[in-house]
Amino acid sequence: MQEDNSQVGMAPNLLFSNMSYEMLQGPKKNVEKDITDPQCTNKNKSEAKLQIVWKNVLIFIILHSISVYSIFMLLTFQFKFSTVIFTYLNLMFAGFGITAGAHRLWAHRSYTANLPLRIFLMIAQSAALQNDIHEWVRDHRVHHKFTDTNADPHNASRGFFFSHIGWLMTKKHPDVLNKGKNIDMSDVLADPVVKFQMRFYVPLVIVCNFIVPTFIPWYFLGEDGYNSFILCIGRYVISLNGTWLVNSAAHIWGMKPYDKNIKPTENKFVAIVAFGEGWHNYHHIFPWDYKAAELGNYRLNFTTCFLDFMARIGWATDLKTASEEIINKRIQRTGDSHKRVNGIEDHHHDEGEAIWGWGDKDMNKDEVLAVTRMTRQKA
Ligand SMILES: [Zn+2]
Ligand SMILES: [Zn+2]
């Protein structure tokens, strides 16, 4: 099992988690890079030999084949309408587990959630099967700190296919493992909800991602059990691809109004399919902003709509957002609102250390003071 270290954040990892290996046994022997050097990652090409994990390739081929079949069944009206509606709602539920939960809450600390909301988001995140919260957050923080370098798990410098799904079919670059071990995870590990999920992750995933979504349409909606299972897999694969587009398409195609020197872009299509996570140029500059965007409405940012509702009922507090002043300053300094950039050129990020979110010690002190923090009064 310990050879399968290819599975990281924004990815399914029920079967081959490498978390236990890294946590319990420390660094792998072949890791030799200087892990204290922030520039140790090269920008373009991989120095490490690409090692394909064929077992994962096979799993993804099977999953995608089933999902194509499920789409065919959908288009030929073989599912009950109520099953389709349920599946869409389930897609949103699991999606919020990733966007509002693993991403905006645990990875970036862009707001604070009370216990009921954290439990809800933990269950939703389990229903998405993209690694447990701890592992997801660790890899996502590394992605923000070392964006599009070899230490980035889904380094978009290596092309669309690699950043979308290829990275899940190959062993991790040594820089990813090195940097992953050094990233601050103390806040996440201090959360008992995260600890609970780590302990019971496999049964949670089996129940939340497979059994319940198959059982409900079959038992309550009168759907055929086989159909129900096929649509369950189809929904899972579609949600995976929606998430992966943030790593691939939103690092390649789109505008760069906030910082033209980085690869992440503003991509409306990704914003729609990933519930508001496509405003990625903005997000990489202000990762602690709970909206993960400056502009756009709820239709283009479902997750913000959900979080504003949670704030209204008092479950989400201390929602951080960037003031117009900070944003405009940044646009003037590094933005490029006129030129569409295809993302092929590899600019160096020279705006100091990238940060993973609220609480990162590299965060600019003036920026910390200028952040707008909101807590709504209970309705
Ligand atoms: Zn990104
Ligand atoms: Zn992020």
Automatic annotation (TrEMBL):
> Is the keyword Lipid metabolism in the record?
yes
Q: In which family does this protein belong, per the annotation?
A: Belongs to the fatty acid desaturase type 1 family.
* Cofactor(s) the record lists: Fe(2+)
Its membrane topology, per UniProt? Answer: Multi-pass membrane protein
Example GO biological process:
unsaturated fatty acid biosynthetic process
Q: Which GO terms describe its molecular function?
A: iron ion binding; stearoyl-CoA 9-desaturase activity
Q: What is this protein called?
A: Fatty acid desaturase domain-containing protein
> Which residue windows are transmembrane per the record?
57-79, 85-106, 200-220, 226-246
